[in-house]
């Protein structure tokens, strides 16, 4: 992509309305734009990051055996009356009447709809286990949306729903998502810590929030320092191996971790003082086994191997992509701007032409741009006639992992400078060496 | 994907509510499911096709220089009051009040919002031309939604919006989309014919509907037979070459083509009788130059090279992915089911194990499945213990381009049978030859 043809509306000033760093940086870099209170457009730079986040989520959901579908945003009120949540859900549910005066709503979540799909299409235990997920817009009419897309009203959610014949099967399904989530966040450069969440009237211990640590986090969290060194499940994890997944779950729930709501001061204090970690965190995922709550109310059952009908056991598993993007920024930035982990960076590299119009600079930049693009890299070429200082500031601000700087003097010697955005490390090398290093 | 682990809720009977073949086949194959009137879930098989359609649309939009963003579904009424369309738009607009009683709406289109984004971020002609697009859900509260996703209330639309300093620039932008659309539909196995559409009070000749011919089309169309042989713009089309694009536009608008609304009986009759084509068609795209209609009303202007302010010229360009999928089926099916063009098929190949559990069959199927998957192919392996007749019927019904049939007898001889879904051609060959043929 050539910057001269791109749409990158960088703000020169820090926007006043931004209370946290990710909100400020997403506005400044032109990643997002507020359209109404708590409702955002994802501008091209932001859309690229969101796509990469979604791709990682999909790959890990697919790897775990979940199957993607796409449910609509608008739902009929009837379904929610069946489950009893239509009246129970408060003002956060956006209620709508269509032209026929039928009561509808903008889905805040999809338990009812997916249960309806299940009950009308699945009849036998032979179709189980089943885990259906989608990445779809949701709407929750928060009274105080804030922090940009960290807490917006219209937002994206990946929500998966598992169906099993038995409680044991449901636990296996739960552990699949548990492992998939650890992999998902890790691939985005985040260390997420699973923390027991309140299961309310459902009971049991099968509900976890995945929290990443960040100074600006919305909630206080308490955990053992050991989490920082726990191994992430490998790419070849066997998701059919119930015992293997259980071992991962056991390991990651073996030491203390709690949000303030679930905090147990005594248990925390039992950890040796040097090993306690008390910090702020951002919730980026939530998994929940809720048994037969919806399947019972809505009649979702299958014929078992015994020929009898069984109410299925369900769980739901959410990740918020539009919240993950600012969470990644909260965890990875400096005074100059964003520092993207390579896996979710909007571009892999940025080629900076220090003197657009100079024959040598143009040629060097075009050579590098063509070679990297051909190798499948996403490259942004700054071919504008902006001042050098502004170019450097923009490159640092948008946080592309590697900058390749081509100035007239170095290019005359057949060389360019590589700058690593994260470490600030600079290295001069030949054009060919630079290409080889990045194509690697 | 192994069918034993997949979610493919095939219906045994033809659904009574389906009036047209694509609706019937999409329901029967479990591609979609109606959730409310005119509101559908895309089940896994359908989602795969939709993704492939979207990918082709994106690739061709990107190739033409358009830039992707993502605007939200809900919009504030204020924007539409500015353009004057809030009152003008009828009951098809779904009007909503949020918890603060603010008037909102579910976007039926995005001219107002994108113009708002433009006016608040673009100040100079140097940022032009600019074409911003997104693929996002829309809602139009049709009084009579029907034909499945062909005419649904909640639907996906790719809508692009171009901004130019001059009328000439806008024409170039229009011709970029014109060529991109020809390529887009062609890649999906469709022959789309651009037909002049009504420009209403805007005037001029820069509005075209792209119509594909299908017996079940909603509208009557009239055109010259020559269209069938016109060349599609090549993959290396230079979108910066205004004259070259104009030549493509001129060629494709040189002979008669009109929907019934725009039909000119006398002009049509002037075509020699043997070269007239009178048929039914389905609209799959619409492009429209509307000049300064919205930029004037909403104050979208830039500073020109002359230092003065200029109201920008705009156009909008729509494609309906959720309508394209049934349109492709209307154009490509037989009595046994769907016949997917390879580019949008949910799977590239289907491996049919005629005797799951038989050592030889299992081994042959796993070998083929692994080799094709490794080569990046999307493969569906029927590893169920269904009867042979049912397996064949399902394979034909869902219309995957190539079937690889492994029965005990042929496998014992080291062979499998390949069946081409479209031609019905069958060929026996060694397992290795089958793999090589498909990986090709």
Distance between the termini of chain A: 21 Å
Q: Point out poorly predicted stretches of chain A.
A: none
Oligomeric nature of the chains? homodimer
Structural class of chain A: alpha+beta
Give the CATH architecture of the largest domain in chain A. 2-Layer Sandwich
> What is the count of DSSP helices of chain A, taking H or I runs of 4+ residues?
14
Largest interface, with Cβ-Cβ < 8 Å? A-B, 53 and 52 residues
How confident overall, as mean pLDDT of chain A? Answer: 96
Beta strand % of chain A: 25-35%
> In total, how many beta strands of chain A?
23
| Major beta-sheet overview of chain A | 9 strands, mixed
Assign the CATH superfamily of the largest domain in chain A.
Answer: Bira Bifunctional Protein, Domain 2
How many structural domains in the coordinates of chain A?
2
Secondary-structure blueprint of this entry?
Two copies of one chain form a homodimer.
Chain A: H1 21-28, E1 32-36, E2 39-42, H2 44-63, E3 67-68, E4 74-76, H3 77-83, H4 85-88, E5 94-97, E6 103-106, H5 111-121, E7 130-139, E8 154-164, H6 167-187, E9 192-196, E10 207-213, E11 219-224, H7 242-252, E12 257-259, H8 265-269, E13 276-291, H9 293-298, E14 301-303, E15 309-311, E16 313-319, H10 321-331, E17 333-334, E18 337-338, E19 349-353, H11 359-374, E20 379-382, H12 388-398, E21 402-406, H13 408-412, E22 415-420, E23 426-430, H14 431-439
Parallel strand pairs in A: 3-7, 19-20, 19-21
Antiparallel strand pairs in A: 1-2, 4-6, 5-6, 7-8, 8-16, 9-10, 10-13, 11-12, 11-13, 13-16, 14-15, 17-18, 21-22, 22-23
